[in-house]
Amino acid sequence: MEQRFIDTSEFTRLGRQLQGTLALQSLQRLTADLPPQGDGVARWSVRGWQDAGGRARLEVCVAAAPVVQCQRCMQPMAWPVDACSVLQVMDAPDAGAGPESADAQMPADDWVEPVEASTRLDLHDLVEDEIILALPGVPMHAQCHHPALGPDASADGQGDEASPVSPFEALRQLKKN
Can you give the residue ranges of every domain in the chain? Predict the structure, then answer.
């Protein structure tokens, strides 16, 4: 059984590494507005270390292909995600301190995304965050093959440049279907 929670201080101090897989369908925030994910999985790894300055770091790598909906042809499509991020483990700011106190803990020339230190950091949530951040706001096929869009509509919306499709022709095609 794979480990789901880590103590960030211990994990980074000992230079540990974990890896595993997650069913995409189990990631509720990710899949809430997406088409069904079937048996899609996310492969992930998390590595902890301390840099030369003694700062705790986590590297999170994720590979997945969640099913999204093309916003041009409205058909489902797999969107490949292969992402790695480095996070700096930060102590929780004092209750009276503002967000600038967390920024003060990071040197300006070495800024990385912060994550709050925890004795129980949920790796599944961390992996889900990375996938969500890697998805485009408006996913589209490079080439759509939907009859209403005409032959080979491209990502720039121009379609086949040799023969532009009239919007009325697209409506006529929809009416036939």
Answer: 5-140, 142-177
